[in-house]
Each structure stands twice: as C-alpha cells, then as structure tokens.
Amino acid sequence: MVSPRCAERRDGCGGDARGKRHHASAGGDVRAGRHGARTGAAPAVPVGARDASIVAVPPASPVESSGGSAVLRVYYHPLSTFSQRVRISLLEKDIPAELVEVDLPGRAQFQPEYLSKNPYGRVPAIDEDGWALYESTAILEYLEATRPSPPLLPPDPRGRARVAMHMKLCDLEFSGPARSILVPKRFLPKEQWIVEPMEKARAKIDKHLSILETEIQGKEYLAGDRFTLADVCYAPFLQFLPTLEVTPGPAIRSWAGRVVERPSVRETRPAR
Ligand SMILES: N[C@@H](CCC(=O)N[C@@H](CS)C(=O)NCC(=O)O)C(=O)O
After folding, report:
1. Ligand 1 pocket test, candidate residues 103, 111, 123, most atoms within 8 A of CB
2. What are the residue ranges spanned by the domains of the chain?
C-alpha cells in the first residue's frame, strides 16, 4: 500500500498513514450488515453509510454451495477499492453474505480480533465457519470455486489462464500505481501530495494502458465476450480513470464505460 508519509489516515485505503489510535476493541468497531441484494431478503449495506445505516442484523440464511458453509462473512470498508472487488463478485453471483465494516480510520484492523482474520491488518477478508481468507484475488477465486454459478471465469483452460494473467497484471501494473495517485487525491489536501511518485505512477499506468488498448481491441470485456474476474479486478480502479488523469485509448474508454455501468459496480461504488 502506498500512501503519503506524515498523513493522518481518514480513509479505507490509507496504507501506512498514521492516524489516532482509538481504544475501542475491534469488536466494537466492526459493524455488521447483511448483503442481500437481488435476493430480496434485505438490502445491501449502502455505500458510504457508515454510521446510521449499518446495524447488527440476524445472520444470513445458509449458503447452498459446494464449498461454502452456513454464513459467509465479508470484512470490508465502503471506501476500499480492494473490498469492492469482493462485493462486486457477491452481487454478480448473488451470494448471500454478512458484510462487516471494519473501522479503518479507528484502526480496528490492528486489533487482535481482526488480525485473527487477516494478520496484515487489511481489508477485505472473509470468514466462513471460523476459516479465514484474505487478499482480494484469492477471495475472488475461492468464491468462484465454491459458488461457480453464474460463472465469472471462462470454461476452457486457455480462457481461464488469460483471466489469471490479467488479474495478475492488474495488480502489478495498474492497481499498485493507481493507489499512489488515488490515496492522496481522494483523502489528502493538495498541499500534502508528494507529486513526483504520483507522476511516475501516472507514466507507469499510461504505458500499461497502451498495451491493454491493443489487447482489448474488438472485445466486450477484457477476456472476451463475457464479464470475468479480470474485469472485476479492474472495475474499482476504472471508476477513477478521470481522477488518475491518464490517457486511455478509445477501446479502453468504451470497455471502462461498460464495466463501471454494471449494476454490481454502481451499487458498490465508493462515496468518494
Ligand atoms: N493486496 C490486498 C490489498 C488490500 C488493501 O490494501 N486494503 C486496504 C484498503 S483498500 C487496507 O485495508 N488498508 C488498511 C491499512 O493499510 O491499514 C488485497 O488485494 O486484498
């Protein structure tokens, strides 16, 4: 996680920014909500509604799946791009889950209760019957393996391999440098921005986008005709293309438009 030095954390993606320590326990700082969009059972936790609307609710009903068990708990923050990946997959696949907001500004991610889910103190993480998993791409793959329908992966080995390649490249070439720009721009006053690394990050993204522009020519989505985990990984960052001030080509612009307009992406979009 890249974030400006000497910055006070105000967000869900503040990396090593330093914030005031709160003394409440992690248990007191996490707030449970039920993700039930499309099931009609209960509304998803509204994006950005951190205090008034997120309340403790009864556990979700059992999940029918080959690998999943009774309750899938997803630890997240509404401003977190990496958490958004998991929330998009939940909506796309209509997976019932209990959303638990982790109070990142209050540093609940460093309390023992949360560190037992993710010892790195980051969101997202999931917990299923006491079995925890962290890292957004690993979570996406687990959800796909245990709840394969509707699929977010192509059926054939080559198609799957291409999706895996794009997921990897998204983190190596795009989401990493994007965060160097987005964390300061979203959460810090301009006078605290450190411009040089932001400019380097912008150049790195532009180089990546020029490769991707060729790759995506003639395709609806990154791996072909259908929306896959490759698009899920990019989606939270494509929302911020204007903020990144990069120069995507026409094929990327139209792909990004399709991705960000998907209901699952719109519904989970961070408030800022
Ligand atoms: N590689 C991780 C990145 C997760 C991450 O950086 N999460 C941020 C929020 S977007 C976080 O939890 N930051 C809290 C902190 O660093 O204290 C993933 O893919 O899940």
Report:
1. 123
2. 26-146, 157-267
